[in-house]
Amino acid sequence: MTTMLLVAAGGGLAALGQFVFAHAIRSRRRLSALNLVACAALGLVFALDPPDRFRSLVAVGFLASVAPMATVVLATLRLTRTQQYRSAATFFAANVVGGVAAVMFGFLAWKSGITLYHKIF
């Protein structure tokens, strides 16, 4: 039950952040940057392997909710409605593939840094 409350609290904070971001970010590039940074941070948190409570609040609750995939889809739909199909496909693919790559980068950056640290010291 505690895990569910932590996820809900993190998701609630992310919803407030998403509300602010949706009105503040009008550029597709900034939206993509926010999505990729949130995905990289998500990968980093999972690489750190924190306690379950922290992971529930920060990773599953906040970071997974703040990555604005719904906003990415809406921006893609706006592009398709104006018949900018190539831009829509590129934007969507860059965010989906880039998001997965950013999660992997965040995870592997931490793990490879720890491995390198242990080899040096």
Automatic annotation (TrEMBL):
It is found in: Cell membrane. It catalyses: fluoride(in) = fluoride(out). It is a multi-pass membrane protein. Keywords: Cell membrane, Ion channel, Ion transport, Membrane, Transmembrane, Transmembrane helix, Transport. The chain crosses the membrane at residues 32-49, 56-77, 89-110. Belongs to the fluoride channel Fluc/FEX (TC 1.A.43) family. Fluoride-specific ion channel. Important for reducing fluoride concentration in the cell, thus reducing its toxicity. This is Fluoride-specific ion channel. It comes from Rhodococcus cerastii.
